[in-house]
């Protein structure tokens, strides 16, 4: 199913760096970072193989002007982003909905920054080789840069961890994925994997009732099959009438573990030939709304 989607489009808190409209807290201790984040995913590079055109690991994209490869430092396999001339810049594009990111980094000095404006200068005097950021705004990328000393060393990164900010005991807020060009809900027929428009009844159906099931894609939450009772989905028409879409299954996407799937049944009560705004509620937290076409 995710292939079809691709086709469609604290102790340890010792430093807070503020640059402009900065809003992230910086951690130099992994345990403190873990305590401030949730739904964490880790890439440790132990099983990553070199590729000729860079790296795309579980939907996380790594880019470097020079070559990249897997090396070994301090007994761990790490990602090396080689310098070009006298300049090093390794950019990591994070999944949507990321509000926490951290990594181990063994070569210093290095400037580690994130897209919301915060940055940390890691140097040989540091007692820690870890840096993590937790923000109340989406973090789109993490960048390691260096233009000194000469010769400029390669960027080194290990155990990249990304997830969501943890605010007290509050559950995470789901984010409904949308198409990049039209901002419509990213949804697929659960049988045919076709995109919208959807029909309430379908001939291509595994269910005896003939009703179409569609799968919605979420980030920011980590849903398992047992979470289905805690998830509700609503559709809203132009007159603000609300329609419940029965949730039949929840799970993590197989290809991209940071995406969760919610499968719902389209009921007879839905109006047809209209756009409906869809939202998903997980443990009381409501997602964004996005339009979906029902014919």
Topology:
Blueprint: H1 2-7, E1 24-27, H2 30-35, E2 37-43, E3 55-57, E4 60-63, E5 68-73, E6 76-81, E7 88-93, E8 100-104, E9 110-114, E10 119-122, E11 130-135, E12 141-146, E13 155-165, E14 175-176, E15 187-189, E16 213-219, E17 231-236, E18 242-245, E19 247-252, E20 260-265, E21 274-282, E22 285-286, E23 290-294
Question: Describe it for me?
Answer:
The chain is mainly beta and 295 residues long. The protein has 2 helices and 23 strands. It has 2 domains: 154 residues, Sandwich (Jelly Rolls), CATH 2.60.120; 120 residues, Sandwich (Immunoglobulin-like), CATH 2.60.40. The strands form 4 sheets. Strands 1, 2, 5, 6, 8, 11 and 13 form a 7-stranded antiparallel beta sheet that branches. The N terminus is likely disordered.
Rg: 22 Å
H/I helix tally = 2
Can you tell me the overall shape? elongated
Structural class: mainly beta
Secondary structure: helix percent: under 10%
Please name the defining characteristics of this protein:
42% strand; 295 residues; 2 domains; mainly beta; seven-stranded antiparallel β-sheet; Jelly Rolls; 23 strands; 2 helices; disordered N terminus; Immunoglobulin-like; single chain
